[in-house]
Amino acid sequence: MVLLGLAVLTLAPWQARAGTATSSAVSDIPNKVHHELAMLPWYGVFDSVGFQVNGTEVTLTGQVTSQHGVTKDDAEHFVNSVPGVTKVINNIEVLPPSPFDDQIRRAEYRAVFSKGDLGRYTMGAIPQVHIIVKGGHVTLEGTVMNDMDKNIAGIAANTVPGVFSVENDLRIG
Fold first, then answer.
1. What is the reported pTM?
2. Which of 13, 111, 121, 147 could anchor a disulfide with 129, C-beta 3.0 to 4.6 Å?
């Protein structure tokens, strides 16, 4: 009887630590998912990928321009490899190929990033500002440093001919 009591006492602290480690791994999922998405090889200024974490389940959202959904599939694959993730729901939309939208993308890039100091937002592996074009409609997403940069980007995006609408969803951060 005494041995059984010692065995239970010996296991109890180990079980508590294992539970804490699992809880810690689950709480670290958002950081690891963010890292994996930042490392996507074809992720660029004309793509926008976001995610939500619910426990061990990750939902991917956004739009990408990659042909055949390479970025979409890569995102799902890399996020699935994150320790602790048990399910990935991939709601990333692959934007249809469109010469009209490609022309707008190029014009928006030139218009937005040639204004003021906005070119600094293209630095680094992943640009801080993303230009999403779908059917002639433009959405600016990402993070800028202040209201002035957000406003300049929105005004510049509205100067491109042939654009049906511009939605400025830039955040200050």
1. 0.80
2. 121
Residues whose CB is less than 8 angstroms from the CB of residue 149 and which lie 6 or more positions away in sequence, other chains included:
116, 117, 118, 121, 170
Sign of CA dihedral 153, 39, 62, 46: positive
Residue 163's SS3 state is coil
Give the tokens for residue 101.
């939208």
Separation in Å, CA 31 to CA 38, 58, 84: 11, 12, 12
Q: Are strands 129-134 and 137-144 parallel, antiparallel or unpaired?
A: antiparallel
Tens digits of per-residue pLDDT, 59-97? 999 999 976 567 899 999 999 999 999 999 999 999 999
- Closest Cα to residue 47, out of 111, 126, 123, 110? 126
Phi, psi of 136 (to 5 degrees): 85, 0
